[in-house]
């Protein structure tokens, strides 16, 4: 198991570096702040905050590899609630909040857990996925997003329909009766007993996310937007914040495990608004978006 942990650390660390490099290609004048941090029980991570001149208002790209004495329930939703389990958790996560309202917000994460849960027999599994949260939805962008996900699943003999449904069910705001966005794929408790196959799939999840989002950014980043477009973007960001503070298991896990708050709350945008939609135009934007989200 120690060998597998080391392999995952190396693979995820490289993925983290590749994702940072990837976001540089979309704009000039990109600034970054790299923070290396240590976890109180062992391990630590690297958090990268990126801001660009024209395209991104905030991108957070995090890598973590930590040890803990008690695995929080947020990581055990469908497993035994053994509070005494020591654990290792390794992960990479991205949340991108664009400046241009015509570029969707995107989220990606992959993670690997190891516990001593069952009588000192180490138990391990992968989880992760990605989803897209547009403000102004384009059919061709959504089609691309899901088509690439289907290709990924076909390559690795995964059930796209199931992973998409899992994503839609998870990223759902019960108090609003709304999905957060147009979905993607999401999975947990992945352990087929073929470690290399599982790790390759999880790595390819990162590549599929990167390739799909790159194409959508390239299509939309030069599109002109108005003050009304921006007001609507800030309003819909409120839904994103509500989900991540109320329902997101990653946020809950980070807080329950005593992690670094700045990294845990990476998902929050720099600007958001809960001001009601006051004009017919803004309300129309919302109706149009909800038509896509409900599909």
Summarize the structure.
With 295 residues, this protein is an alpha+beta fold. Helices cover 42% and strands 27% of the residues.
What does this structure look like?
The chain is α+β, with helices and mostly antiparallel strands and 295 residues long. It has one domain (2-293): oxygen-dependent coproporphyrinogen oxidase (3-Layer(aba) Sandwich). The chain has 8 helices and 9 strands. It has helices spanning 2-24, 139-155, 160-170, 195-220, 227-246, 249-256, 261-264, 280-293, and strands spanning 31-38, 43-51, 56-68, 87-98, 105-118, 121-133, 172-173, 178-179, 183-190. The strands form 2 sheets. Strands 1-2-3-4-5-6-9 form a 7-stranded antiparallel β-sheet. Strand 4 and strand 5 form a beta hairpin. Helix 2 runs antiparallel to helix 4 (195-220) and helix 5 (227-246) crosses helix 8. Mean pLDDT is 91; it is low at 77-82.
Global Rg: 19 Å
Low-confidence stretches: 77-82
Structural class: alpha+beta
Overall 3D shape: globular
The CATH architecture term is 3-Layer(aba) Sandwich
Question: CATH superfamily, please?
Answer: Coproporphyrinogen III oxidase, aerobic
β-strand amount: 25-35%
Query: Total domains, how many?
Result: 1
Mean pLDDT: 91
Strand order of the largest sheet: 1-2-3-4-5-6-9
Sequence of secondary-structure elements: HEEEEEEHHEEEHHHHH
DSSP summary: helix tally: 8
* CATH topology-level name: oxygen-dependent coproporphyrinogen oxidase
What's the helical proportion of residues?
A: 40-55%
Largest sheet: 7 strands, antiparallel
Overall number of strands: 9
In CATH's first tier, which class applies? Answer: Alpha Beta
How far apart, in Å, are the first and last alpha carbons? 42 Å
């Amino acid at each position: 198991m120690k060998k597998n942990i080391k392999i995952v650390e190396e693979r995820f660390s490289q993925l983290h570096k590749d994702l940072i490099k990837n976001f540089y290609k979309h704009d000039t004048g990109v600034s970054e702040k790299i923070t290396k941090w240590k976890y109180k029980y062992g391990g630590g991570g690297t958090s990268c905050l990126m801001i660009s001149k024209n395209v991104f208002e905030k991108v957070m790209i995090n890598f973590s590899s930590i040890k803990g004495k008690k695995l929080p329930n947020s990581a055990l939703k469908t497993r035994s609630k053994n509070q005494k389990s020591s654990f290792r958790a390794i992960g990479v996560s991205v949340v991108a909040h664009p400046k241009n309202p015509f570029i969707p917000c995107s989220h990606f994460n992959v993670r690997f857990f190891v516990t001593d849960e069952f009588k000192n027999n180490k138990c391990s599994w992968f989880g992760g996925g990605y989803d897209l949260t547009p403000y102004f939805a384009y059919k061709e962008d959504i089609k691309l997003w899901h088509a690439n996900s289907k290709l990924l699943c076909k390559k690795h003999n995964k059930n796209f329909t199931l992973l998409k449904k899992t994503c839609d069910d998870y990223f759902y705001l019960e108090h609003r009766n709304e999905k957060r966005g147009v979905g993607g794929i999401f999975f947990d408790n992945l352990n087929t007993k073929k470690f290399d196959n599982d790790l390759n799939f999880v790595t390819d999840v990162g590549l599929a996310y990167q390739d799909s989002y790159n194409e959508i950014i390239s299509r939309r980043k030069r599109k002109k937007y108005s003050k009304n477009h921006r007001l609507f973007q800030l309003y819909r960001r409120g839904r994103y914040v509500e989900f991540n503070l109320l329902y997101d298991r990653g946020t809950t896990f980070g807080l329950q495990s005593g992690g670094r708050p700045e990294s845990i709350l990476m998902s929050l945008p720099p600007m958001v608004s809960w001001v009601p939609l006051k004009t017919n135009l803004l309300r129309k934007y919302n109706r149009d978006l909800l038509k896509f989200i409900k599909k």
